[in-house]
Amino acid sequence: MDIAIIGGGIGGLCAAVALQKQGFSVKVYESSSTFQPVGAGIGIGSNAMQALMKIGVGEKIFQEGHILQAQVFQNAQGKTLNTIDFSILKERFGQENITIHRADLHRTFLEALKPNTVSYNKRCMNVEQLGEKVTAYFDDGMVVNADLLIAADGIHSSIRKKLVTNSLPRYSGYTCWRGITENNGRVDQFTSTEIWSTAGRFGMAPMKNGQVYWFACINAREQDPFYQKLERKEIANLFNDFPEIVTQIIRDTPTKLILHHDILDIQPLKQFSFGRIILLGDAAHATTPNMGQGAGQAIEDAIVLGNGFHQFEDLPKVLAFYEEKRVARTAKVINLSRQIGLTAQLRSKALASTRDFLFPFIPSKLLLWRLKFLFDVKLK
Q1: Based on the structure, what is the number of domains in the chain?
Q2: CA–CA dist 136, 27 (Å, integer)
Q3: Residue 45 has pLDDT above 90, yes or no
């Protein structure tokens, strides 16, 4: 079986690794001109680590990452509202939560692929199905025929828009800056922290080699030109009422390492499989980053698809298995992540005060129990 993957991001590359290990002929078509080691830090939950171990890259990714043992939530005055103990996940599921630079994760997948698996400068313009073949047309005139086409071309997927015409990215209501800088002992070595205020939200997490990954979100209009042009000192000024560590970290980050994006997701879809075309990763279920599950869910997609091929010889059964495992689960992640974002980004001081008063009374184990479905994952 010849498999074409449109999109060389985390989901597309992980799927390529999983499927090549089963002997399939796989080609990845990426619109970028080359692999570019850019991006910020991301979290990989123990659920995704379980999945990565299955295809032989988990150990390398674990070595490239940094263990997180706890998540702390604070108010703008630095008072701790609640804590989640991630060590319980290690005890129960055998894997850690980690942070890793997106480029390191990406590179690990690339190194696990056969030479010449990825073709760059390939922007897919259209796809067509005829019988048992799928044809992909690229902007340079190249035409590719495959037995199965995996659309892993991100939240703005042109293939998804062709298959589900009303599926467009939706704005969350807040915009976000992300960056990486030197920790210099400011952030606890194994703890990620989020600080909530009606003025915005700031998060920071340690990474390997003495670095810290951070994000800073504020409520704003979509594509607001004012926020798109801010320099690091101006970004820091938005958080002057936060603990001093926040403005220090932002100001210490090299401008070239700061990224800015409006936060988007998509309305959950009811199907991922369309004949011999399937959606995977953000193309299928783009979510806000409030649960740190964007990469994790794409990785799970790839492993589940590979497991489907391992269990079934008939392609329709493979794709039915994929949908059964992925559609409802990813919808739950999208909806819960959006709810968490709305709670964390409250504008009303009265509602935020109520939130901050009640949050400490919620047992930490209850917070973790709410996420139990994430980590108690069934990939087969």
Answers
A1: 1
A2: 12
A3: no
